[in-house]
Amino acid sequence: MSRKLKITIVIACVVAALLAATYWFLIKTLEPxxxxxxxxxxxxxxIGWWGYQDDLVIDVLETKEIYSxxxxxxxxxxxxxxxxGTIKNKPMWKPxxxxxxLSERWHGNPENFKGNAGEVILTPVVGVKEDQxxxxxxxxxxxxxxxxxxxxxxxxxTYLVKAQDKEQKIVLQQSK
Length: 176
Description:
Number of domains: 2
Shape: elongated
Number of strands: 8
Order of helices and strands: HEEEEEEEE
């Protein structure tokens, strides 16, 4: 093997290593550091046996952005939904919120929305546990649920968040 060929191979290997290192550095630098959502109860996306929903009342629905650094390399935000209300059940079977059913969908562009329009529906799922001391009174709940919310495209993304008869509007702005 000639000396020129050996030098060419070494230079090619060094250039390839430098390109790989630069690529890895740029990906790790530009990749968003999105926090993990934290929730008081699990989130479910499946329907199941929901036999105790009749006496569920939601008094307060609040939404808050936990993380929404939306740009060219990130289209996911972390949103916190807070639900407060009351539940009740038959004596000896104390109700509690065992999970929250979360449903999201895109729909047309309603009149008062700019850009992409989405809808998020939250339904607390009521479970019961046997409790001899429970006499059928209303039980309060106050829970926070965090989840990722995907932007639908560049610009303004408006979402209508619903839980029973409560509604909140949240707007995410994604820039290029």
